[in-house]
Recover the amino acids of this structure.
């Protein structure tokens, strides 16, 4: 009986941890979902940008003597400007009917970021230190405890998605986002400067990336090579949830997180593999995702 | 204008793909091939090893070019089939005791079969999402092969000398060129690499010259219009995906026969087997058969003289790729062929307009 009870607790714990991990993946995915939604751009450097932002927070925290949350706050406007500039100067040139330029330019960017970080920070793994909060946890009883950082991650993911939905559906900027997304030519005729709109969307995506980077660095070690893995998780969350819906992206992240922790519970070596397999199963059974919204 | 009107009545049309200079090129290619076959008689071992590298990178580049440059299937996951081919070769050689040379075609067939199953899932993703989907599949292959303890698990395994020095024909090569076993092994790998690159070029060339190739060009230029004209897009894309996977699998098998050591991280490396290949095709000129040839030579020279710079070298490659994509999207070959009107592999169709049988012809070139 005792063994059975422990077993049950283990599974329940895996489920809770999976949902919390899903919050992190939803944060990875929200930025990707945003830029795809606005300009149909699939950014292969997305994961590396998250890692780059984590290093930026690390440098700011050490340089200014701030804790990671304060450093992330300082990083937000910097990241917005960086994203705006990247889109305005470089990525806007790649958009058009041809799929190849945006994919290859962002793929090149991914290689540049990875190796740039490798050169500056070496391959050593790093971590954002936040003192007491790092190890703090809330005991739920029955042998299950929830870490404060994972809980904050999930809450932040929900907050980010609420804000993104507000921006998209309640502001004039959001109207411009949706207009350029629906029909670029007509939006231009209505006087929308699509290059600025796209750049603003990328700036916004970069602030989401900074938030994702904060929790990436708080929850686990990171090094310059882990970017592509984060890109794949983000992508899987977007596809599982269904392209075009932010709440779908959150759900997709949670499905992915659950698949990984349940897989890891069966065999620790299967964590990442079971996440990928869950993605392929959803793709095979429901190619438009669990919560489809957009037609594209 | 009056003259043009007069011509209108007598002229006839014909579609040509080859031209006289192309026949000269074909003859030259035949001679080059024979010289390359005989090369081990004169060349030293370093040159043979460099050529093996050059050949397999070129073969990989031609495959990726057919996928992305013609069929519009931008894959970032071709390392799946390089690794798969390598692992199948190791499994057949180590576990089943099959001669590595015979394991190579088997690896090709198996990769094609795996590609067929993979396509059922990844073909549900369009465009850019297809790219990341293929990457996920490659990761799945990597993680699955890391589970096979018989093949060394996550750390990988090596081919024992007994397996590699017992390759079919090795005694004959040793006697013929009067070399020791390691050099004879390289020569056999060299011939296999030569056969694979020549075979890949031939397959890509024949596909592009066939009716299917015309359909591929149509898909590349305007997919919706091609579908409207009756091109079965799904079937053609699937064919190209499976054929290139089979070829990539054989190339992967050869690569790991030559390396004699395999590990999941190396065999399914996105940098080695996809990023470099994309770089080659983009720098050389995507959507032409000549582009990958030029790109492979450029890449070989950079790899040889700059690879020691490590991370800076990769930053340079990434930057170069971006600059070419933005400012010269047709690559080095696009620049050359535009300037000198040159074609080595005549896969384009030309419209030839003749006034009559004997009069001089007016040739209009059209890009297919």
């Amino acid at each position: 009986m005792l063994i059975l009870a422990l077993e049950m607790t283990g599974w329940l714990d895996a489920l809770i941890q999976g949902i919390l991990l899903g919050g992190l993946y939803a944060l990875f995915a929200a930025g990707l979902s945003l830029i795809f939604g606005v300009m149909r751009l699939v950014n292969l450097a997305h994961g590396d940008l998250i890692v780059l932002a984590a290093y930026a927070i690390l440098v700011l925290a050490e340089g200014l003597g701030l804790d990671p949350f304060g450093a992330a706050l300082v990083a937000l406007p910097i990241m917005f400007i960086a994203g705006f500039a990247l889109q305005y100067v470089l990525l806007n040139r790649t958009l058009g009917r041809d799929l190849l330029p945006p994919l290859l330019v962002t793929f090149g960017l991914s290689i540049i970021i990875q190796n740039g970080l490798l050169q500056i920070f070496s391959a050593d793994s790093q971590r954002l230190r936040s003192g007491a909060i790092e190890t703090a946890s809330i005991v739920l009883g029955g042998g299950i405890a929830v870490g404060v950082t994972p809980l904050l991650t999930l809450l932040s993911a929900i907050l980010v998605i609420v804000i993104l939905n507000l921006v998209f559906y309640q502001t004039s900027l959001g109207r411009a986002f949706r207009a350029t997304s629906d029909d670029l030519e007509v939006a231009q005729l209505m006087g929308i400067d699509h290059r600025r709109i796209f750049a603003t969307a990328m700036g916004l995506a970069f602030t989401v990336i900074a938030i994702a980077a904060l929790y990436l660095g708080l929850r686990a070690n990171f090094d310059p090579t882990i970017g592509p893995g984060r890109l794949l998780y983000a992508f899987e969350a977007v596809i599982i949830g269904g392209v075009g819906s932010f709440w779908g992206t959150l759900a997709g992240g949670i499905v992915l997180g659950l698949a990984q922790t349940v897989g890891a519970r069966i065999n620790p070596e299967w964590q990442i593999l079971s996440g990928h397999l869950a993605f392929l199963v959803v793709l095979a059974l429901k190619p438009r995702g669990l919560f489809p919204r957009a037609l594209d | 204008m009056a003259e043009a009107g007069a011509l209108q009545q007598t002229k006839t049309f014909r579609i040509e793909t080859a031209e006289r200079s192309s026949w000269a090129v074909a003859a030259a290619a035949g001679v080059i091939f024979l010289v390359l076959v005989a090369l081990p008689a004169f060349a030293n071992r370093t040159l043979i090893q460099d050529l093996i590298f050059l050949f397999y990178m070129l073969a990989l580049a031609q495959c990726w070019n057919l996928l992305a440059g013609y069929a519009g299937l931008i894959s970032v996951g071709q390392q799946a089939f390089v690794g798969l081919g390598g692992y199948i070769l190791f499994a057949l050689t180590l576990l089943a005791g099959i001669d590595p040379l015979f394991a190579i075609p088997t690896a090709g067939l198996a990769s094609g079969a795996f590609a067929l199953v993979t396509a059922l899932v990844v073909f549900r993703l369009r465009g850019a999402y297809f790219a990341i989907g293929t990457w996920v599949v490659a990761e799945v292959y990597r993680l699955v092969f890391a589970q096979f303890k018989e093949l060394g698990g996550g750390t990988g395994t090596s081919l024992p000398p007994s397996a590699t020095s017992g390759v079919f024909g090795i005694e004959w090569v040793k006697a013929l060129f009067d070399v020791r076993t390691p050099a004879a092994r390289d020569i056999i790998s060299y011939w296999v690499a030569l056969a694979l690159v020549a075979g890949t070029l031939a397959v890509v060339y024949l596909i592009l010259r066939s009716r299917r190739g015309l359909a591929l060009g149509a898909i590349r230029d305007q997919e919706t219009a091609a579908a409207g004209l009756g091109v079965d897009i799904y079937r053609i894309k699937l064919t190209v995906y499976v054929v290139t996977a089979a070829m990539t699998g054989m190339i992967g098998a050869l690569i790991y026969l030559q390396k004699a050591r395999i590990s999941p991280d190396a065999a399914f490396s996105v940098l080695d087997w996809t990023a470099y290949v994309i770089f080659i095709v983009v720098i050389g000129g995507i959507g032409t058969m000549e582009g990958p040839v030029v790109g492979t030579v450029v890449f070989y020279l950079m790899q040889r003289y700059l690879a020691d710079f490590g991370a800076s070298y990769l930053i340079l490659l990434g930057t170069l790729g971006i600059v070419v994509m933005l400012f010269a999207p047709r690559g080095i070959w696009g620049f050359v062929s535009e300037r000198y009107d040159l074609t080595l592999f005549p896969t384009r169709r030309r419209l030839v307009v003749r006034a009559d049988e004997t009069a001089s012809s007016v040739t209009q070139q059209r890009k297919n």
